[in-house]
Design brief:
By secondary structure, the chain is an all-alpha fold. Helices cover about 70% and strands about 5% of the residues.
């Protein structure tokens, strides 16, 4: 037992270090050249936020492994668990909430502040916004916790007569309980009046986690439901719409000239917006125009990339074209694999969560069998399915951001990602990571049974006043499946076509 506990602690420390190193690697390689050797505070927040999100996802497999430390004990109190998982869960999600609602907004306001202002004025402006947010969040949390911060558990009072201790244990369909001729036990023969409600006040940290989970669940249902379909299908249809051959030089010159005209138009629009911003005009029309220009710039960058793919230049032009072809083949392979995972997720939600009683434990049984093959194989597969949901959330946010004006788009690009885009996506990941954990602890309740996560997300969360009905009637799961189905239909109908959004320059075939 002690050796198992020590090994689990060592693995947890190593994983945390590796997560931190990997996030630093992502930051260094994704950051925009303009942000090199500056914006150190936003960079620190990005690495910290990504680390917290990754560790929170990995904590559920760790919670399952932690439970294994007492698998030979009759009850959990009979041994000392390796890690205080409930305290760790509450700590990591309090940190998550502070990052999402305070630290990341401050870093974004500071980074996006007028560069002509002094550092002190930018900090002051960011502090005012964050202080306003803190007051509003504090009031909302305090009022809600005071009024409805209670947990209502449905309990049933059971009683039965005593019976002599049997000399043999012969149970059958006709003899289900102790006692001659007893076909039903007291739990089944209890009257409806024996059921009552046991009310107790939830702890404040648990209530904060619950409300953050609700906010994250709304975003998760929308972005995750869209992303679970568009993530694999986007890769597959990207292969279908791939450039089939290299274009001629005359075609390249024609397309490059058109893109140059578009770039000059966008520069004029950006300059006009900058002048408008400096004059202090930041109304609704300004924000709408700013988002429209940002999307046009993104589409222009995609056109430039597509043009470069169709007309590779330089001494290694043939090698570049070969790598382009291989890249699209890789997208096809990843898209097919992703589609299998997405279908497995949707099938599992329908089979295990929406149908009552469940038709099968499905993925729960798969993970258990993988654990039988090798101790960490099922845990690794479990972690992969949870991480896949986070990737789906980002993919869904990108897709809706390109098509809906009121959603701000923050693309992640290798070597060209500004810190505000980094911070936005980190905030989205952190907010949705809470919901992903709650979703996974519910979807894989059989595999993750008797864990601290289930105690927080399974019993307390689903019994809170005003909130429990969202989980009782599977509102978020149904919304997730509905949006996934609509996205699939959309891609089946329009995904194979070459995109033609407004203002986008199309390349010659």
């Amino acid at each position: 037992m002690g050796d198992f506990n020590l090994a689990l602690v060592i693995v947890a420390i190593i994983v945390c270090v590796l997560v931190f190193i990997f996030n630093v690697y992502l930051l260094v390689n994704y950051q925009h050249p303009d942000d090199k050797n500056q914006a150190y505070f936003p960079k620190f927040v990005v690495v910290l936020g990504l680390s917290v999100a990754a560790i929170s996802i990995l904590m559920l497999p760790a919670d399952v492994a932690n439970r294994q430390a007492c698998r030979h004990a009759i009850y959990n109190g009979a041994c000392n668990l390796t890690l205080p998982m409930k305290d760790l869960w509450l700590s990591i999600y309090i940190i998550d909430a502070i990052l999402v609602f305070f630290i990341i907004p401050f870093a974004m306001f500071y980074y996006e502040g007028d560069q002509d202002k002094s550092i002190g004025k930018r900090i002051k402006s960011a502090m005012i916004w964050v202080a306003t947010t803190a007051v509003v969040c504090g009031l909302v949390l305090g009022i809600l916790y005071g009024l409805v911060g209670k947990v209502d558990f449905t309990v049933r009072h059971l009683s039965s007569a005593t019976s002599n201790f049997p000399s043999s244990w012969d149970f059958s369909s006709n003899q289900q309980c102790i006692g001659s001729g007893a076909r039903q036990c007291s739990a089944y023969t209890a009257s409806a009046s024996s059921e009552t409600t046991w009310t107790m006040r939830a702890t404040f940290p648990e209530y904060v986690v619950a409300l953050a989970t609700i906010v994250g669940s709304v975003l998760f249902s929308i972005f995750g439901g869209v992303g679970i379909a568009c993530l694999p299908l986007g890769l597959i249809f990207s292969f279908i719409r791939r450039p089939k051959a290299v274009i001629t030089r005359s075609q390249y010159i024609k397309e490059a000239t058109e893109l140059g005209k578009k770039a000059r138009e966008l520069k004029k629009a950006a300059d006009a917006l900058h002048q408008e911003e400096r004059s202090g005009s930041k109304g609704r029309k300004f924000r709408k125009n700013k988002k429209a220009v940002e999307k046009e710039v993104l589409l222009l960058e995609e056109d430039v990339k597509a043009l470069e793919e169709m007309y590779p230049q330089g001494e290694k032009a043939e090698t570049t074209w070969a790598m382009t072809v291989l890249g699209y083949l890789a997208k096809l392979v990843l898209g097919v694999l992703g589609l299998i995972v997405s279908v497995a997720w949707v099938a599992h939600i329908v089979i295990y969560l929406l149908i009552d009683p469940p038709l099968s434990a499905f993925l729960n049984e798969v993970f258990i069998k993988l654990d039988d093959v090798w101790g960490l194989l099922g845990t690794a597969a479990f972690a992969f399915f949870c991480f896949y949901l986070l990737l789906a959330v980002i993919a869904g946010a990108m897709m809706l951001g390109l098509r809906l004006v009121f959603i701000t788009i923050h693309p992640m690009k290798w070597g060209a990602t500004l810190m505000n885009s980094f911070l936005f996506n980190v905030g989205l990941i952190l907010l949705c990571s809470i919901s992903v954990i709650q979703f996974c602890s519910t979807a894989f309740a059989y595999y993750a049974r008797a864990t601290a996560a289930q105690e927080i997300f399974g019993h307390t969360l689903q019994s809170l006043r005003g909130i429990k009905y969202l989980y009782k009637y599977n509102v978020f799961q149904i919304a997730f499946i509905a949006l996934a189905g609509l996205t699939f239909v959309y891609y089946a109908a329009f995904g194979w076509r070459r995109k033609k959004p407004s203002g986008r320059f199309q390349l010659s075939s």
